[in-house]
Amino acid sequence: MTAARQVHLVRRPNGVPVADDFAVVSVDVPDAGDGEVQVQNLLMSVDPYMRPRLTADQPLNVAMIGGGIGRVVQSRNPKFAEGTLVRHGVGMQERFISDGKGLQALNPDPALSLSVYMHALGGTGITAYGGLLEVGALKVGEQVFVSTAGGAVGSVVAQIAKIKGCYVVGSTGADDKAAWLRDEVGLDAVINYKVQPLKTALAEAMPKGIDVYFENVGGSHLDAVLPRMNVRGRIPVCGMISTYNGGGEGVRNLSAIIYSRVRMEGFVASDFPHLQTKFVEDMTGWLKDGRMKYQETILDGFERAPEGLIGLFSGLNSGKMLIRVAD
């Protein structure tokens, strides 16, 4: 037996989650049995999609959902040697036992940071890639608007669109993120929606209208965008973070999709297994040649996972939010 910790949801949040909604609990993890491995978590992901699940889907008083990268520290499964790095969706646990199902052996490129396999080369990366190129059906030279362009998904979307020769505008709610998007990433325009009226700023920044709007926010963002959409425009819907805590403004301009023949389509990362090989090839190349830039916010310590999740809704993160559990 090995003592390890788990993060539990102990009560349903009312609005924005707070620290008392969670507990860090010590449990005993058994040794690996026949056909099993014991995995030590190294990096854990916290993501906006987790918030809606806290309201209903996430059971109380068990390890919370989530993905991560771990190392096999005990193995009685011939498919996974001790020391193998694995990606998993087992959740917020320092150590866990697995029969190998759902584990993906990871052979990281030594020229890249391991952490990029949790964002640009991980779930957020394939979400951006598939959402923009397949659901959004992006064409070279189009007019693209990305909400929360400083976030883990949005920043990848914006850069892919630039790589594909598009005119790209992003929104963010912080001056430092706006500066990074403008000066480092090279977006054509950046809107700080907390200090600029979004509708006016969009009209100024995108006089040719919008062909593809990559939706991460919903509410007032979507309402401002809809009248600016060009005929046959596409809106891939990745998230609606403005509504996750029970707030958010209503959308009044939805009828605009009728006359502009706009297509809106939701999707999730698991929709794109057929793109995985090409995605890894493209993204690895873009990271290595410097065309894909990224930011990370890494909190050290397993017990900081609730802090990381709560911080997503206050702008604590720049780029991907990660929890470093062990080296």
UniProtKB/TrEMBL annotation:
<protein>
    <submittedName>
        <fullName>NADP-dependent oxidoreductase</fullName>
    </submittedName>
</protein>
<keyword id="KW-0560">Oxidoreductase</keyword>
<dbReference type="InterPro" id="IPR041694">
    <property type="entry name" value="ADH_N_2"/>
</dbReference>
<dbReference type="Pfam" id="PF16884">
    <property type="entry name" value="ADH_N_2"/>
</dbReference>
<dbReference type="InterPro" id="IPR036291">
    <property type="entry name" value="NAD(P)-bd_dom_sf"/>
</dbReference>
<dbReference type="InterPro" id="IPR045010">
    <property type="entry name" value="MDR_fam"/>
</dbReference>
<dbReference type="GO" id="GO:0016628">
    <property type="term" value="F:oxidoreductase activity, acting on the CH-CH group of donors, NAD or NADP as acceptor"/>
</dbReference>
<feature type="domain" description="Oxidoreductase N-terminal">
    <location>
        <begin position="5"/>
        <end position="105"/>
    </location>
</feature>
<feature type="domain" description="Alcohol dehydrogenase-like C-terminal">
    <location>
        <begin position="152"/>
        <end position="271"/>
    </location>
</feature>
<dbReference type="InterPro" id="IPR011032">
    <property type="entry name" value="GroES-like_sf"/>
</dbReference>
<dbReference type="InterPro" id="IPR013149">
    <property type="entry name" value="ADH-like_C"/>
</dbReference>
<dbReference type="Pfam" id="PF00107">
    <property type="entry name" value="ADH_zinc_N"/>
</dbReference>
